[in-house]
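Here is a tokenized protein:
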Amino acid sequence: MVPETDAPAAESSPAELPAAAHRTGTEAPLDLSDRRIPGLALGVGLALVGLGIGFLGVRMRRRREARDGPDPP
């Protein structure tokens, strides 16, 4: 059982808050130039997606060939 306390929760005044709490509302939002993703990361991501789709296609084809036999020419 959790003991109950009569003391109210401690409220912190703005002077006691960390400096990061004060800066969050005053900072300007990031520009698009700050949020750019390097081209290498996009290329690697697309290559990995392509490899994953190719891998799934090969697995599905092998499973179908094992079940139905090879495709007719």
In short: The mean pLDDT is 75. The CA atoms of residues 25 and 35 lie 19 Å apart.
